[in-house]
Structures are given as C-alpha cells and as structure tokens.
Amino acid sequence: MNHPFLQFQHDRLQHQTRRHFLNNCSVGLGGLWLASQTSSTLGATLDKDPAQPFAPAAPHFAPKAKRIIYLHMAGAPSQLELFEHKPELTKFDGKDCPDEFLEGKQFAFIQGVPKMLGSVFPFHQAGKSGQWISDRLPHFEEVIDDVCFIKSMWSDQFNHAPAQLLLHTGSQNPGSPSTGAWTTYGLGSENQNLPGFIALTSGGKNPDAGKSVWGSGFLPSVYQGVQCRSQGDPVLYLGNPDGVSRNLRRRSLDALSELNQRIATEVGDPETLTRIAQYEMAFRMQMHASDAFDVTQEPAHVHEAYATKPGQEAFSNNCLLARRLAERGVRFIQLFDWGWDSHGTGPDTDLRQGFVTKCEEIDKPIAALLKDLKQRGLLDETLVIWSGEFGRTPMRENRGGTTMRNVGRDHHPAAYTLWIAGGGVKPGLTYGETDALGYDAVVDRVSAHDLHATLMQLLGFDHKRFTYPFQGLDQRLSNVTKPSRIIKEIIA
Amino acid sequence: MTIHHGAVCNGENQNCVLRRFRLSLSNNPALSQFVSTPGRDAIWQELDSLKNQYKAIPGLNIPVMQERGDDARRETRLFVRGNRTTLDKLVTPAIPDLLGGPENADNRLDMARWIIGSENPLAARVLANRLWATMFGNGIVETLEDFGSSGALPSHPRLLDHLALRLRDHHQWHLKPFLREIALSATYGQDDRTTSLLLELDPRNRLLARGPRQRLSAEMVRDQALVVSGLLTEKIGGKPVYPPQPDGIWRSVYNGQKWDTSTGPDRYRRAIYTYRKRTSGYPGFLTFDAPTGDLCTARRIATNTPLQALVTLNDPAHIEFAQAYAKRMADHHSELAKRLGYGWKLLTLRDPDPETLDTLTRLYEDLLAELKTTPGDSAKLADSPERATLVIVANTILNSDAALNR
C-alpha cells in the first residue's frame, strides 16, 4: 500500500464504490446546478443530499446542448429513398451489380449477383439550403434548413441488434452503457421529479437489441433508461393501486416517514434518510409524470400538427411526449420506432408500400417536433438526432437468389444517413459523401465512435477525459479501443 | 420431385438455409427392394413408438457439459487478427501460460482440479470473499470481480486467507457450514446501530466496528414479501414461471414469444424462478439493481431511487402480497394491536416498540375513517373497510426501512 501507484489505484477504486460515487455527483455543482435552482421545484436541502445521483452536475466546459432527443428508426430506413440522391444509381437500375461491390462482402440476405435498384421515389432540392430530399417527407421539408445531414455514416455490423448496440453504446456487444446513461451520469437531470433518461417505443416491437440499447452497462444501474409507455401508467407502477386514493397514499407515506425517521434516529444509517427522500420524490413523481404524459392538455392544433393518434401507441404521440419531456428538463429522450426493415419480403417491407406508410407516420410528427422546439426556444439547447442503425443496399434484395415480388433493399452497413438538428450544430449543412452509386461512404466518413465523441463535445465533455474505470480500462462512450474524432465541421 | 425438411425458420422474415446435405440416387433394384422389405416398415414404426415413449418420460432438459469423444472433436485454429474466416495454426487445449497452471493439463477436468487444488489459493480466496460480501455487503477485496492488478487491495488480507483456508480445507468447499460460521461470528452478530463518530471515522464500515446493514437485493424484496404474506410456493426446481408484469414491456422481436402470466402456485415462486430474458428483464427486478445478464456481474451496486418506491408501493404483485399479509394479520386475532404486532413480528422477528405500534394504529384509524366513506375504493382492496385498511397498512410496513434492509 505504500507504493504511490498502488495507493492511487486503491483510492480511485474506492471512488467507484457507491457512497463515494454518489458523493462525487454532488461535488462541483457548478453553473448548471445554480441555473437549475430557479426552475426546480425542489427545496435546496434535497438537492444537496449526497445520495442524489441525478443532481445536475457541471460538465468539463460550457455545453452547446443540454439534452438529446434521439429518434431511432429501428430496422434501418432506406437512405436512398429519403435523403441520398443518386442519379448514377438510377441509370444502372435493373443492371447486374458490379463484381467489386460483391467481392469479399457479406450481406444479410443478398445472394449471387443482385440487380442495382435506383431510388423508387423522385428527388428534388428543398429549402434555402437546397439539400436533396425525396418526395416522401413533404412536411419535414419545411424544416430542412434546420437540419444537418451526415451522409457518410458507416457501421461494421450488418445485423440489427449489434448495429443498434454499436450506435447507442459504442460496442456491438451488450454490456456497455448507452449514450443516455453516459449523459445522465455526467450531467444528472434538471428535473428530479421525472426520470432523467426516458425511452419510448412505437411500432409494436422493442428494438432488436432489447433494453440494452438504453441500458446502463457497467455504470450504476440507476442510469439506465426508464422505458415509459404511452398507454397505461407512463412510468411503470406510477399509479396508486386500485382503491388507494392520493389522500390515503399521502397518509400512509406520512406514517412510513414516521417509521423510517425513528429507524434513522435509532440506527443512524444515512441511507434511511435517503429512503425517506426517495419516497417523497416518488410521491411527487406520481403527479409530475402523470402531468407530463397527459397530452390531453395540448390544444387541438398541436395534436393536429403532430398527427397524434390518441389512445394508441404511436410514433407521433411519442414525438409530442418528447417535446413535453424536453420542456420539463428530461436529459435524454430516446424514441424507437419499429418497422423500417424494408427487405421487400412482403407488402409491409415493400419500399413502395409499407415504407410509404412508415414515412407518413413520421413526416408530420418530426416536422412538428422541430418547429415546436424552435418556437419554444428549446431547439438551441436540444439536440435532435434521427437515424437507423445502418443503411440499405443500392442493390435490390434477391433473397434466395431470386427476383422477389416486392421491392426491397438489404442491410447495408457501408453507408447510411443520419441527421442532427439544434443544440450547437450547423443547420442546413450536408456533411460527408458516398460514391456515385451510394455504396460506400467515401468523403468524411463518420463512425458511431466519431458521432459519440461529437455528442460528448456538444454536451460539454472532453470525450477522452469523460471516463469510468471498468475491467482495467478507463472506459468511455467513444470506445477507448477504437479511433474516434470530433466532427468539428458540423459544430456551429 | 419435392424434398421436405423439418428445419425451423428463425422468425417471420428469415429464410431457412440448409447448409449441408447429401442426396444420393440409385437405379439399383436392390435398393427399392430393400426399402419395401415387409419387416422394414414395422422396424421404423417401432423406433417411432420407442422415441415417443422416451419423450413421454417426464424430466428436465438440462444441458450438461461434457467433453466430446476424440472422433467428434473439431479442429480449433487461431484466427488471424481475430478474423474467423482466416485460420492459422492448430491449437490444443491447455491452461494459458499467463495463469501459471500446470503444463500437462489437456482437458477441462485437469483444469478444474488445478483451479481448486492446493497450489492455487485464488479460487478459495475469491469464493470466500464473495460469500463474505453476501453476508456483510462489502467484500474484504471490494472488487469482487477483480483480484488482479486493477482490482482493489484487501482490507484484511490475513482474514481473507484464513477464510479461504477454512472454506477449502476445513469445510471442504461446503458453503452452508462456512456461511454458518460467518453468521455465528461475533463480528456478524454486532448491532448495526451506529454513531456519528463511527460514521465519520468509517462511513462505509470497512473496519466492521458495527454490524452490517444493507438493502435487500431485487430477489430478496420479492421473496421476503412472499414469505411474510404466507404466499410463497416452496417448490424447488422446475420450469421458469411468469409472475405478473405490466403490458407493453415484454415485446419479443421476431419470435412472437408471449408472457403468459402464471396462475396458481406458480405465481408465487421465489424470484430465481422468474423467466429471464436478456433483452427484456423483469422490470421490478431491474429497478432494484438486478443485472440484465448482458455482462457477468459479480457485484451489484445497490441504489436507492424513487422508482424503487413505486415498485414496492404500487406493483400489483406487491399489492397482492400486502393483501395476503393483511389477511394473515386479520386471521390471527380480532384485536387491532395484536394484529399489527403479529404483522410486525412476522417481518422483523421482533415485537414492535410502543411508538411503532402507535404510528401504525393511528395510520389504521385515519385510513379506516376515510375508507368507510368510500366503500367503492375499499371494496377494491378487500371485502370490508377494516380489511382494506389493513391492506394499506401492510403495504406501508412492507415499504419501511425495516423491511427493505437486512
């Protein structure tokens, strides 16, 4: 123990343990913390409680964005039917795919020599920025000048689950913390009466990678995303049981507090006092969360703008909820919409049918979300990100080596499009390029790790210094074992 | 000609690919004669019926690890730069040099023997440390998962060695007597009450000047409630069960697997029998820091959050526990003080002190006054306002610090 290095290492490991870790969170509450005091409904005493893992904390430097809304189109939407205008590809439509695209490549389902497939929909330039877009997102076009496209995203995973994990946790294997977990770990949350990291799903299925995409990995489990529902209790177990009124609940919590106070005095364990505070917070959360998720408070024109579907589980409802949660200071809001896996194995996954419906389902809500955030002055401090987990092939899928009745594209990790808006990102910019046929990202390639490094930068963290020790490594979101760079060119 | 295969497809939109099969054709008349031999059909039928009889024998399908016979082994080769498609030289089983094991170990049994053998003190230390942590909340080596150079140093190295030797040599790796020894120790038996001075000197109780106090694990929260409510099904083993969980959380991708909520005794099995799936853990457990299974987790870091409060206050499963717990109290005696005292003792194994009893009695009276005026609410909890009141009191007791800690 006398060896200084061992001593240092020991001290640091001590810091990993819970009490120290929680203590850490309350240390160095900087400007952010003070700023939040004015809007928080909490008393100062609670905020100073060392056992508040979500106490707002100061990042390394002044952040450009305070929160993130991530719209993930699970299944991977076709970039070639939305944002990637490739006239060359249209010329080659129906022709055999050149050998150099196939040699040494692995596809999920394509076999033999597939045909090239030009975009199924016409493209045009839109907005003052003149960015290319297909005719599938007419409402989104109205906000295209607020959006920065990254056309050169690439992945090295060609199956959904590992690709989703890579994009959200920086590793294709389960077990690493998600971006949202890192964010709430680093910044805490501005609203102690709501979970700091909320995941909402639509499309009838959970993402392929399961809850790991909003998991906390090796970070303390308190930072895992809280999956909320747009039907029933939004936060699990939020509502009092049948027959227990809020009045009765209040009375029983008073008695509980009395019991626990007595235990605290007798035993002297500070954790008991924390528990008392947590139960009070739960009581407030019941009210605040119900309020946050009560979209009936919104006027009719807002519902119309978002094209909400009251009483159903829908992406549009989730977009409206995302805005309401952002307003209330939720740090990270992650939306997953399932059903974008356009293989062309049936009408649902046909680019001319199911895909069209999916586009209609997201077009108005996303446009409304961006406009709404902007109008409320929230877009400046909120990053909105849209993407799938990879792209789709410039070739038409030929499952089993045959021509299929429906038109679809296979998984394509070599290139995909992601857009990002708000929070310190240059609006109206197109960054990165793919080759003429849209096969490979060739100019300014961006990996998931580059994206993560950039997101951390925007949130005010030096991604290389924002680490957590695990398995002998100072782990970080941008993955310590992989190269990563901050995409400075897109930062305003 | 059509050939049918019985391979199962993986989900609705995945093609099933037969990777390797052989098709032989022959125009030799002996073959068709052989196929149509009179007795042959009967033999196949007999085989089928034997297979069916075999299948009908009840038993569990538990995979058992077994060394393959020499003829069934496959070659194992190094992957160049980890790429499974570029194979390098052939390798044979051995213990990695790094671990310093014996040189001639060439199968799992040799390795297992070495691991628990007298030349390797690590296994006993690691296990003793984990068992110690189970009892005390903290390991002597705090990083249960890491005894290497990046792990923490032991707080009491000689104690750890002593425990390791007791476990290995004296108790011959039997866990129960070893745990009993710890449980009966003066250190474990200490009162968990603390003073501000002790808290300041040793906030995390590393020096064990007081008894251990820790929050129940996710599984224990459920199991304890099952025990005190008298609902617990004590059956051991068997297939996993599906206790209630909210709709819209379990939504399996591709395979259409359903969460069919268990009824009858299976509804009240211990937490370890709850069906676990890596992509969709049981929500009540995840909230109480149960790992997802994504990573091998030796150590859980207990948290204390409002979401946990919501689980034990409102989860319909926990309300069911409270109802049964309340019924037990009510059936025990007709007098309120006796009912509450009995309930408290079931949970804490102690009689409540007068103040606690007073708090609970006042709570009962206030709740009852209100529930009497709202018979609709009362009926949702139990069949009389008195019993309904007792349900909320039971729920309150199950949420107290006395219940959630050990």
- Into which percentage range does the β-strand content of chain A fall? 15-25%
Uncertain ranges of chain B: none
Mean pLDDT of chain B: 89
Strand order of the largest sheet of chain B: 1-2
Quote the beta fraction of chain B: under 5%
CATH superfamily assignment of the largest domain in chain A?
Alkaline Phosphatase, subunit A
**What's the N-to-C terminus distance of chain B?**
70 Å
Number of helical regions of chain A: 14
State Rg of chain B.
30 Å
Tally of structural domains of chain A: 3
How far the N terminus sits from the C terminus of chain A, by CA atoms, comes to: 49 Å
Overall strand count of chain A: 16
| H/E topology pattern of chain B | HHEEHHHHHHHHHHHHHH
Overall 3D shape of chain B: flat
Task: Report on the architecture of this protein.
The complex is a heterodimer of chains A (about 500) and B (about 400). Chain A has about 500 residues and is an alpha/beta fold. Chain A folds into three domains: about 1-50, no CATH class; about 60-230 and about 310-490, Alkaline Phosphatase, subunit A, CATH 3.40.720.10; about 235-300, no CATH class. Chain A is built from 14 helices and 16 strands. In chain A, a hairpin with a 6-residue loop joins strand 13 (about 435) and strand 14 (about 440-445). Mean pLDDT of chain A is about 85; it is low at about 15-50. Among the domains of chain B are: about 75-115, no CATH class; about 120-200, no CATH class; about 320-405, no CATH class. Helices cover about 45% and strands about 0% of the residues of chain B. A two-stranded antiparallel sheet of chain B has the order 1-2. In chain B, a hairpin with a 7-residue loop joins strand 1 and strand 2. The relative contact order of chain B is 0.06. The chains are: A alpha/beta (about 500), B mainly alpha (about 400). The interface between A and B is large, with 91 and 88 residues.
